[in-house]
Here is the input.
Amino acid sequence: MNLESKIYELSFELSEVIDKNDLQKLLGVLSNDGVYAMWVYAMDKLKEEAKKTKITDLIIKLDYFIKVKKESDNNKIHSQYFQNLAQDLNKLLFMKELLEKVFIYALYHAKAKGD
Here is the structure.
């Protein structure tokens, strides 16, 4: 699986569910405060369950390229996942970089369709 191709696919899917305003907020929290803060913000501030699920799915799909040890339920992300991710600085920074790229591309998609 090609990483760039997956990023394009995920960013388009994200732009279909999450509006431009929420994408900008998520990107801001991610850039300023990190991966875990972005996830906590998303789980707290995004009102619709579909949006929360999309963020969780995004992290799970990007983890395919990072390979962080997850708990037994691979379809959910818990705080333990982020503790495992934080134990390897290279993986943490790579995840942040991937998420930033997905959010930026999703913003471009959202702007292009007029959201």
